[in-house]
Amino acid sequence: xxxxxxxxxxxxxxxxxxxxxxxxxxxxxxxxxxxxxxxxxxxxxxxxxxxxxxxxxxxxxxxxxxxxxxxxxxxxxxxxxxxxxxxxxxxxxxxxxxxxxxxxxxxxxxxxxxxxxxxxxxxxxxxxxxxxxxxxxxxxxxxxxxxxxxxxxxxxxxxxxxxxxxxxxxxxxxxxxxxxxxxxxxxxxxxxxxxxxxxxxxxxxxxxxxxxxxxxxxxxxxxxxxxxxxxxxxxxxxxxxxxxxxxxxxxxxxxxxx
Length: 258
Ligand code: AMP
What we know:
The chain is α/β, with parallel strands linked by helices. The chain has 2 domains: about 170 residues, Rossmann fold; about 70 residues, Pantoate--beta-alanine Ligase, Chain: A,domain 2. About 35% of the residues lie in helices and about 20% in strands. It contains 11 helices and 9 strands. A 6-stranded parallel β-sheet has the order 1-4-3-2-5-6, sandwiched between helices. Helix 7 crosses helix 8.
């Protein structure tokens, strides 16, 4: 597996594959867990060449959250290699946003509700970095987790609105959970043992698939929202704060249980 830091190096590595090879892209922010590894392994099975991007995108965070975000690049490199990644693209922030940078993608309505309401500017950062990665890598498939259902909805809308959909398939894989039901998240390492216990109310509440019942089960916790979202598929989504850690999760309401 090759670690590359610059867009130029990545383009050079991909150049020989441009004719006839299927390139898979898995955009991530690192601190890998089984949820990430499931995306890497599926990309490995379905594509000729797998690019994992590892970029804690400052444009989608507020400053305090960015500082706290867990990072362990050495471990991530090993895990990505073991799961079959061919390249890990880990650029410094200045490579993605050089001095003078000023172009942003805004997915207006889908980007302003739910997470967008509590994290203003978050999806502008997400959509912009995803479009940049799609342009740099030009993958046939990009892999995302259902765990971030609104992110999928925003990226899907952007891909359609900006006419990228002929060349790019979005693959969305089910949420991977711990044995106790908590959705795996890089942020889970920030939870103290007692906070982790309290956090279990989130998957339990969502498992009811009933917004009223879920709100009852979450009462007493610091709840930001519990809503049915008309994404594809429809989901019951929620965000809570436990101590200083913010957790999001969702369950699919119709079709295949994810
Ligand atoms: P992140 O590094 O948190 O930006 O996540 C990178 C990708 O992994 C995103 O598409 C996430 O939706 C996905 N992901 C994160 N957690 C999980 C999980 N528990 N199960 C499946 N996919 C996940």
